[in-house]
Amino acid sequence: MQPSAAKPTLRIRPTKGWAALNLRELWNYRDLLWILVERNIKVIYKQTALGMTWVALQPLIAAITLAVVFGRIAKLPSDGVPYLLFVFCGMTGWRYFSETAQRSNSSLVNNAQLVSKVYFPRMLIPLSHTFSALVDFALMLVMLFVFMAVYRVPPTLRLAAIPVFLFLTAMTATGVSLWFSALSVKYRDCTYALPFFLQIWMLASPIVYPTSEIASPLKQTLFALNPVVGLVEGFRWSVLGRSALNPSIFWVTVGMSFLALISGAFFFRRVERDFADII
Amino acid sequence: MSAVALSIQNLSKSFRIAHQSGGLPGYKTLHDELMTLPRRLINRLRRSGRSTSETFWALKNVSFDVKAGQALGIIGSNGAGKSTLLKILNRITEPTRGAVDIYGRVGALLEVGTGFHPELTGRENIFLNGAILGMSRAEIRRKFDEIVAFAEVEKFLDTPVKRYSSGMYVRLAFAVAAHLDPEILLIDEVLAVGDAEFQKKCLEKMENVATKEGRTVIFVSHDMDAICHLCSRCILLRHGEVAKMGNAADVVGAYLGGERDQSPEIDFAPIESEARFQFAGLYNQKGQASASFSADETLLLKSSFAVSRQIQGLQFSFSVFNFKGDQIFYSTISMAKPAISVEAAGEHNIAAMIPGRLLLPGRYSITLALHTPKTKLYDRRTRALSFRVVGTIGDSYDGFAGDELGHVYADVKWQEIDNQRVAGSPHDRFPISH
Q1: Would you list the domain boundaries of chain A?
Q2: Which residue ranges form the domains of chain B, and what is each CATH number?
C-alpha cells in the first residue's frame, strides 16, 4: 500500500549520535511549560504551616548564619560593605542558581510516571524549575532592597543591569540542571552527590569572601572560569557598586554560561531517548 | 482507497537484559560503570561477544498500515510486544530499527491518571493533564465543562485529587483523554479500571470516536469482546512478531482457539526432582481425551507422577486460569474426601473431577504442581494443559458467555417470597429446599 501523497505529520526513526535540539517543538509545548511551572510553585510549600514564608525564611536564616560564622567569627573581608548585606547580595544570585539545580536534579526521576507513560519534550521538566525558582529569586530581590534601605545604600542606575545577570544565571543554572537531571536518570548517585557538589561550589565562589582577595588580574580571570564568580560579582556590582567585576571576567562568564547551557541541552537530547526504558 | 493514517515498516525494538548478579536491572551506579569501564573497552577492542548483557527483541520486523478512519485492535499474550508497540507510536520510547510514518495528530491514553499530581485540585489537574496530553490551554478551557460533566466530579473540582476515590480519579483522567481531538487515538488497556457502568460509558465514547467521528483508533486490550465490538481489523502479536492479521473476529478466534492445536494428553520430559510429573490429560464424561467441553459437562483431569522417596506432606495441586491469566480456582489433593496420600515412593495415578456448570464458556489453562505446602516445590508445569468451554449453561442462559458476567457460573436458587417484613429468622422467611 502506497502512503498518501501528503507528507507525514510525524516520522519516527531510530536516532543515532547527537540529535538536533528541536526548539520548535519546545515552543509548541509552551503551554505545558507554564502549567508545569505553576504546578511547581503551587506544590512546593503545600501542606506546610508557614507556606510561602519559607521562601523568605530560608535565605534569611542562611545569610545570618554565614554572617555570624564568616563575618563575626572568621572576620572575612567584604570590600568595605556591611558583611550581612555583602553575603545576602552574593546569595541572591547563588541561591537562584542552586535552588534551580537542586530542584530539577531529581525532577525527571520524580516524574517517572510521566516520562514512561506520556510523550512530551522531556526538557520541559528540568526547564520548568528554572522558571519556578524565579519566584524565590524575586522575593530575595525584594528582601535585598529592604537590606539596602536598612544599610542606607543608595540605589543607582546600575540596578538596570540585574536582568542581564539574572539571564546569565538562568542560563548557567539550566545548563547544570540539564546535565544533572539527565545523569540522575541513569545514575541515581547524582541525587546524592549534587548537594555536596553545590556546597563545595558555593565555597569555591565568592559568596562569603570577595573576589578582590585574589590579587592578580590573571588569576581573577581564571577564577571566573567558574561562571558563578562572574554572576555573583555582577549582582554585587549592580547593587552595591563595589565589585571586582571587570570586562574580562564578564566575558569569560558570558562564554561559560553559554557553554553550560548549550552542552547541557545537547547532552540531554542525546540521552533522553533512553529515559523511558531505564527510568 | 482511503488514505493511510499510519504506516509501520520493519519496526524492531530491543532491550538489553543485564546478566550481572546483584544490582537492579535498568540502571547502574556510576561506580559499577567506572569499574567495568576497562573491561568494556577491552571487549570493544577485541570485538568479543562475551558481554554481560543479552539482547531481547520486544518487537521484530513488525510492518503494517492503518487506514484513516479504521479501528485496529492489537491482541496477544503478556509480553508479546503490544505495549512496546504503542509506546513507540506514542514516541515514549525509540525504535531500534525500522520506521513509522504518521499522518495526523496522535493522542494517547496509555495509562489513566499518569499526569495527575495528588496535591493539586481537580480543576488544576485537568489543565495539567490536558497540557501533558498535548492540548493547549485555550482548547482545554473550551472543553472544560464537557470534561467535568463526563467525569461527574463537579462538586469536587476544588479538592486536591489525593482525596478523590479511585473511581473519581479514573473518571476524571479518562474524561480528559477522551476529549482530546486527535486524528489518531492510541488506547492501551484502560478499561480494566473503574466500575462496570463507567467502563460501558468509556466504551461508548470510544465507539463514537471510532465510528461516528471517523477517527483512527488503535486499541490494545485483553478484552476480546471489546476488540470484536470496536475494531474491524485486528493484529495478533506473538513474541514481538505479527502472527496474524485480518478481520477482527477471525484473529480473535484464532487467538482464543489456542496459538497451536494442543493435544489434550501430554507426556512430560523427566526432570531432576524427587517428585515429578510424567503425564497429564483431560477427558470428557465418555472417557475420551478432549480439549473442548460443553458448559454443562464434567471435566476429568488425570495425572501420573513419580515419587522417588517417601515425602512427608507431598501434595498434588492444580490451578485453572482463564485466557487473561486470572486464576479461576485452585484445588489440592489434601482437600480430597476421603483423604488420598501421595507421600509414598512410587508412581501415583490421580484423577480430579471438575464439575460442569462451573466454568463459563471461554478458553482456560491448567497449571500443575507437586509441592509440600510452604516449604518446597518439586515440579510445576505452567499452563501444561489448555481447553475450551463452549456452548451455554442450561437452557435459560443463552448468551451467558465471555467474562463480562464474571468468572464462574453460580447455581443461585431464586424464588418469590411473600413479605420481607414477616417475623421470624431469615431462614424461616426464605426456606430453600436442597
Answers
A1: 52-278
A2: 4-256 (3.40.50.300), 265-390 (2.70.50.60)
